Amino acid sequence: MEDVNFPKAFLWGVNSPFFPLLENSREETKQRIFENAEKDLSEQLSFLKSLKINSFRFNLNWDLLYLDPFYSCTMYDNFIEQLRQREIEPIVNLIDFDVLSYNQKEIIDTIENEENISKFIEIIEKIVSSFKYKVQYYIILNHTTKYLKRRFFKGTDVDKTELNETVQNLLNFYDKSVRIIKSINPYAKVSVSEEFNVEEEEQLDFVFSFIDIVVKGKSPFFENMAFKKSEIDFIGIDFNDLTSNSEEYTSLIKELSKEKNNIDLDEVIKRFSYKYYLPFLITENISTVEDDSLKSRYLVNNLYKINQSLESNVKIFGYIYNSLSDIKINNRLLKTGLYRIDDKNNYISLRNFAKVYSNIIEDNSINERYLKYID
Hints:
Pfam families: Glyco_hydro_1. This protein has 375 residues and is an alpha/beta fold. 45% of the residues lie in helices and 19% in strands.
């Protein structure tokens, strides 16, 4: 098999790790909180030196933005400037519902409620005005349908009236954010990104329905509602295999089985390319198996599937691994990062599969060293 090459302008990236929440630091002064946040961003920059990536996707911490919008914008602007000095393209997640669900409930209520959206929009305008032309890619909403399913789909009963109202408010928020971004930086690209969990094929229709609303202004799921078609430049695909580490070997066999029923990344891409005439960015991709060789196999196989889609003229312009380091959520360590950390959250070293990823990026191809991983 010949080397598998990628386009010259292909974006190779990684996501920032899950940041610590302020609820653990309420006894600290505002100065100390921001010192810790700046230290965390500085550490992330130092870790990027060992990788060959040319893009970095990160969430804004709305706890910090609510605490002090001016200082937060200055901090993130300095961070972005340092990324650009390293020739790393910043990709900014404005709203990630996976993150907000762990934060203050009133932040989510603000986005959901049309009457309260103004404060959120006011902060976003400060953010984008600070970044100006330094940021070309904004993902305005991430994990929206995952949040909506968690919020409204409890058992068989769904309050469609409240669901429809919330969706309409979210779309209004999205449209207002787009207008702000485009007025400040007309060259910026705006997007939404959604997660396609490999275990949830039966729920794909709802995920596609939300994207249908944004892209086409109509959706089979929300057939009785009228929406205004929104402006969108690309779509983000989050494709994460969140199988249990304790069932690692079983999960591997299931994953690699030719008779598996789970949806595959290439199947998601095919459905996207059939439905939408827009460029795609793989905004998240991760496997929770712990063994490095299995992680390498998962990574290379997905990159190969992306390459085959490119050969079929599908417009995929980048791949972002998730995440830069292992993360701790509710005292549980998820060993999913390019960097491993110890129990005290000290970074140790690059994992072997991260070196595989970095070598593929440097060569801009899957060469003979890694072709053995392709099924």
